[in-house]
Design goal:
Blueprint (H helix, E strand, L loop, with lengths): L13 E3 L6 E3 L2 H6 L24 H19 L9 E11 L5 E7 L3 H12 L7 E3 L2 E3 L1 E11 L1
Antiparallel strand pairs: 1-2, 3-4, 3-7, 5-6
Length: 151
């Protein structure tokens, strides 16, 4: 029987109040004021697009995948019929599961038909290799900004 485990990363920094001597969860402004750089857990291996060669460097693998994802979207996104011109911005929140499958969680901005097409394209991306932390596949979430210029 396969052992099932899951990781849940919660990233926060605790600071101590000098007057009360109690700890509290720091806000970004607290960190900036005290010139503290938060040190968060980084996965060992980024999710990779099938056309990206494994380099062993998280940033290189992540950047290659990001580039391939944008190329795929540009190539496969079919602009819905619209009557007015302008710029449309959407933010797509999606996750990559432990099997490398992509699921759109939420789309903000844009109009219904543009959102529907963005969902279709992103959910039809090729299967990715999953992200790994200490040798174990983990699910990760991303936000993908998309800007469309309608002429």
């Amino acid at each position: 029987m396969e052992e099932r485990r899951s990781f849940h990363f919660v990233s926060f920094t605790l600071l101590r109040n000098d007057e009360t001597l109690k700890y509290y969860v720091a806000e970004n402004i607290d960190l900036r004021e005290r010139k503290i750089k938060a040190d968060y857990i980084m996965p060992d291996e980024a999710s990779r697009h099938p056309d990206c060669e494994k380099t062993g460097n998280y940033d290189n693998d992540f950047n290659c995948t990001q580039k391939k994802v944008y190329e795929y979207i540009i190539k496969n996104y079919k602009l819905p019929n619209v009557k007015s011109a302008g710029q449309l911005k959407m933010n797509v929140a999606f996750s990559i599961d432990t099997q490398g499958m992509i699921k759109v969680n939420k789309i903000e901005g844009g109009e219904y038909w543009f959102q529907k097409e963005a969902r279709r394209v992103i959910e039809n991306l090729p299967k990715l290799t999953p992200t790994f932390y200490r040798g174990m596949a983990i699910a990760v979430s991303f936000n993908l900004p998309i800007t469309i210029n309608v002429k």
